[in-house]
Amino acid sequence: MDLIWKILKSKKLYYTTGSLILFGVAVLLILNFWVMPAYTNYNEGITVPDVTKISLQEAEELLESYGLRHEVLDRRANSAYPADYIIDQAPAPLQLVKPNRKIYLTVNTAVRPTSVVPNLENMSLRNAQIQIENYGFVVGTISYESSRFRNTVMRQSLAPGDTVARGEVINLTVSDGLGDRKVRVPDIVGDRLTDAQQKIRRAGLRVGEIRFEPSREATPNTILSFSPDEEELTEGETLTLVVSERFDVREETEAGAVGADTTVTTPLETVDPDTLDNDDNDDNQNN
């Protein structure tokens, strides 16, 4: 115990401790103000020159004169540039970088890379556009022809399986959803709404707007009429339906319309056309 107390009272201990602290502070100051700035080139920077639109050889010489390195990152075909000219660079021109920084270059190639044309037929328009871009091609004009399946690719300008240069344009012919043949309009007057909808779809037609009109004679949700009232229509065309509802639901002077297969709200209850072929609903409506 006396030894410890003697050491603590020794001036030599305090001199040694103080010297170590001062030495540590001095080392930190030297690292902060001299060593690290020299190592990282602190407060030094080089403005990146613009090397696009010049040849690769000229770009190399210019970058070396600025104290910068370079690497060819990619080669692409671009008809707007001569062969071996710089298309793009990173970092961009006029940016401030450290000395000896590497600049990545994209060079125009004399030989255009090729790719196999994908088969786009019977594919949705959106998926076909994605495939065209993924294969390195360009989406061209999109024309429409009558066919039953809307926004489906019918034909493409480049044959599937051909190997062509990337960047080529692929034009598409797409279905507009209308068939190129005539179909017979089913007899739906007097049918329940859901039965009529099924007949219309089986015939290759579409259910459009559904209008409800009060009727004393017809059972609610019965087809009163439709338009266009033709014997034949082009496949894919739309029919507007007029459907009966309870006469006392609202005054005859009121008019209303709903979209196909949507829910119609009346003062008495909410009616969904797609669920109105349920016998229980018939009893409720008649009551």
Task: Explain this structure.
This protein is α+β, with helices and mostly antiparallel strands. It folds into 3 domains: 63 residues, Trypsin Inhibitor V, Chain A; 62 residues, Trypsin Inhibitor V, Chain A; 105 residues, Trypsin Inhibitor V, Chain A (2-Layer Sandwich), CATH 3.30.10.20. The chain has 6 helices and 17 strands. The strands form 7 sheets. It has a 3-stranded mixed β-sheet with strand order 2-5-3, covered by helices on one side. Strand 16 and strand 17 form a beta hairpin. It is elongated, with a radius of gyration of 40 Å. The chain starts with a helix and ends with a helix. The C terminus is likely disordered.
Mean pLDDT: 81
Percent in helix = 25-40%
Q: What sequence of helices (H) and strands (E) makes up the elements?
A: HHEHEEEEEHEEEEEHEEEEEEH
Enumerate the spans where pLDDT stays under 50 for 5 or more consecutive residues.
251-287
Instruction: Record the strand order, biggest sheet.
Output: 2-5-3
**Termini, distance in Å?**
107 Å
CATH topology of the largest domain: Trypsin Inhibitor V, Chain A
The tally of beta strands, per DSSP, is 17
Structural class: alpha+beta
User: For the report, how would you describe the main beta sheet?
Assistant: 3 strands, mixed
How would you describe the shape?
Answer: elongated
Total individual domains: 3
Topology at a glance:
Layout: H1 2-8, H2 11-40, E1 46-47, H3 56-65, E2 69-76, E3 86-90, E4 96-97, E5 102-108, E6 114-116, H4 125-134, E7 138-145, E8 153-156, E9 163-165, E10 169-175, E11 182-184, H5 193-202, E12 206-215, E13 223-227, E14 232-234, E15 238-246, E16 264-265, E17 270-271, H6 279-286
Parallel strand pairs: 2-5, 7-10, 12-15
Antiparallel strand pairs: 1-4, 3-5, 6-9, 8-10, 11-14, 13-15, 16-17
